[in-house]
Amino acid sequence: MPEGDTVFAAAHRLRAGLAGKPLTRTDFRVPRYATTDLSGWAVTGVRSVGKHLFIDVSAGERTASIHSHLKMEGRWQVGPLGTRWRRPGHTARVVLCTDDVEAVGFDLGVVEVLADPATAVAHLGPDLLGDNWDAATAVANLARSPDTPIGVALLDQRLLAGIGNVYRSEICFLHRVRPTARVADVDLPGIVETAHRLLWENRLRPIRSTTGVTARGRELWVYGRDRRPCRRCGTTVVRDMLGGLDGQGERSAYFCPRCQQP
Ligand SMILES: [Zn+2]
Predict the structure, then answer these.
(1) 250 annotated active-site
(2) So which domain of life are we looking at (predicted)?
(3) Which H or E run contains 174?
(4) How far, in Å, is the centroid of ligand 1 from the Cα of 144?
(5) Which tens digit of pLDDT belongs to each residue from 72-130?
(6) Catalytic-labelled residue, pool 51, 112, 179, 219
(7) Of the residues 21, 122, 147, 217, which has the maximum number of CB atoms within 10 A of its CB?
């Protein structure tokens, strides 16, 4: 499940592979940009903002940015030119090559080339992994919807950017609140601080862990563990459907009915 840390790590790999180099070939496999050709343009930077990723390019005076979003299934593969693709070719949405590196974006939910990239993320709240992370603004944004379930509010990228389905369940567990608890009834500064700490700790980890353990099957407290015993108290973990506000509808939330009392 791509969350802010996944995108941050993808930006890190793309930056290492592409930054400072001219593109020798580009192939946009989305109708709107099918004829766009950025070969000859140089990659000037790669950055993530929440779950959005930008590959900035320039040619002389002209600048643009390749904006992408992983949505549910997206992934960037970066490797030496000619590396075998790890996903089927028909799922590739964009291919970017330099002299020695090939980057392929598979199953991306969004691919577009923007002259003014700031517009794509103008609606987002503070970025949990951004240089200008602002906890106080994130808390204030969340507090404006006191009756919203905290598990729904945490997914609203307009309030704070970077949390997905995995982290919302884990954060609620760590704070002993149900995902359905009202925003007004939870410790918002504490929750925001936990969100920031978890994403920061995991930003470049190959295996995401909220328990502090990266051994297989022991990385998470409750996410994906329905019908299994809570790691803290042994009670059976429950899965419930809870909406997201990012257009992806109902999604699973997990909690321990004993550790997280209503
Ligand atoms: Zn428990």
Answers:
(1) no
(2) Bacteria
(3) helix 165-174
(4) 30
(5) 899 999 999 999 999 999 999 999 999 999 999 999 999 999 999 999 999 999 999 99
(6) 51
(7) 21
Other C-beta atoms within 10 Å of 77: how many? 18
Active site residue 51: yes
Distance in Å, CA 234 to ligand 1 centroid: 6
Tell me: pLDDT of 20 over 60.
yes
Interatomic CA distance for residues 169 and 159, integer angstroms:
17
Query: How remote is the CA of residue 160 from the centroid of ligand 1, in Å?
Result: 27
> How many angstroms from the chain centroid is the CA of residue 110?
13
Give the chain's length. Answer: 262
According to CATH, where is 3.20.190.10 located in the chain?
Answer: 4-121
Q: How far from 22 is each of 14, 117, 151, CA to CA, in Å?
A: 14, 20, 43
Say how many Å lie between the CA of residue 175 and the centre of ligand 1. 12
The arrangement of secondary structure in 135-255, i.e. its CATH architecture, is: Orthogonal Bundle (1.10)
Give me the pLDDT at residue 50, please: 93
| Residue 244 pLDDT grade (very low, low, confident, very high; cuts 50, 70, 90) | low
Question: CATH 1.10.8.50 occupies which residues in the chain?
Answer: 135-255
Max Cα–Cα distance, the chain, nearest Å: 62
Q: What is the C-alpha separation between 148 and 162, in angstroms, rounded?
A: 19
CA–CA dist 64, 193 (Å, integer) = 34
How is residue 198 annotated by DSSP?
H
Distance CA 141, CA 249 (A): 21
Indicate the CATH number for domain 4-121.
3.20.190.10
Lowest-confidence pick of 24-38, 60-74, 114-128, 237-251: 237-251
> What pLDDT sits at residue 250?
66
